[in-house]
Design brief:
- The protein is an alpha+beta fold.
- It contains 10 helices and 11 strands.
Length: about 270
């Protein structure tokens, strides 16, 4: 879910190490990652071995088709162990200083199903989203939401704190002209998942391979590039609160905005 082109090499290196450990444990693993299928195709594939999903689609839509494996810990401001939050970003020259100052404005949203870009954002608003915001611009990706705010097409957006940290490191120009006025409450991070009918032995092999790769000194550079510190094991109960969060939506603008060539961050 955080597979920026700039760090694709690190994702590949981590997977190569995980796959090798799985093979040693007797679990067949493809030597290379598959990036072609859509997210829905990945998450509903009956042969899925490992993927990453956003907590909202997992809790609301895919729980009957996916099984939790582990939740990464990211070294990014706004993270707390396996939990994360979103920065509320506005233009640098915007007059407001707090979220309440942006009532009646236009928000940029990467997608309505995104926990970090919308669901967690809506949950911290002082009133229902369809009353608080005048309209919303759906952009398709966090980086495009940021660009829409900078360009004046929208006034505020919620940006996943891991995405924000990765862009700050690899595309600092994407943050130029923006400032943060706060952040959302923390929520369970983006879990690594496998197919629902995976055996306990397969799940344990995945966890062992991940732990081994994330402790391997040879992968220190890759881990640093990905901001991954380790994994923790969360359960369904940790994600149960997500479906209770409000998701009402403001009127959607039809104004087109730029689209990026990056994978859609959660």
């Amino acid at each position: 879910m955080y597979d920026l082109p700039e760090i694709g090499w690190a994702t590949d290196a981590l997977w190569s190490a995980v796959a090798a450990r799985l093979s040693e444990a007797g679990v067949a693993a493809a030597p290379a990652l598959s990036r072609d299928p859509t997210l829905n195709e990945l998450w509903t594939d009956p042969a899925l071995l490992l993927s990453q999903t956003c907590g909202n689609p997992y809790a609301r839509q895919y729980r009957d088709q996916l099984r939790l494996v582990a939740t990464p810990r990211y070294a990014a401001p706004g993270c707390d162990g396996p939990r994360y939050s979103s920065w509320l970003v506005v233009r640098e020259d915007a007059p407001g200083k707090a979220l309440a100052d942006f009532r009646g404005t236009v928000c940029a949203v990467n997608s309505w199903g995104s926990l970090s870009g919308w669901v967690a954002f809506a949950a911290v608003l002082p009133e229902p989203p369809d009353r608080f915001f005048r309209a919303a611009l759906v952009t398709g990706a966090h980086v495009d939401s940021m660009a829409a705010v900078v360009a004046g097409e929208a006034d505020i957006a919620a940006i996943d704190c891991v995405t924000y940290a990765l862009l700050q490191r690899h595309r600092p120009r994407a943050l130029a002209g923006l400032r943060a006025i706060g952040r959302t409450d923390t929520a369970p991070g983006l879990p690594l998942v496998t197919r629902r009918d995976a055996t306990d032995e397969t799940v344990e092999a995945l966890r062992s391979a991940l732990r081994g790769a994330l402790a391997d000194p040879a992968l220190a550079e890759a881990r640093a590039a990905l901001l991954i510190e380790g994994i923790e094991i969360l359960g369904d109960a940790d994600y149960d609160a997500i479906p209770a969060l409000p998701i009402s939506t403001p009127p959607q603008l039809s104004v087109p905005t730029r689209r990026s060539a990056t994978a859609p961050a959660p």
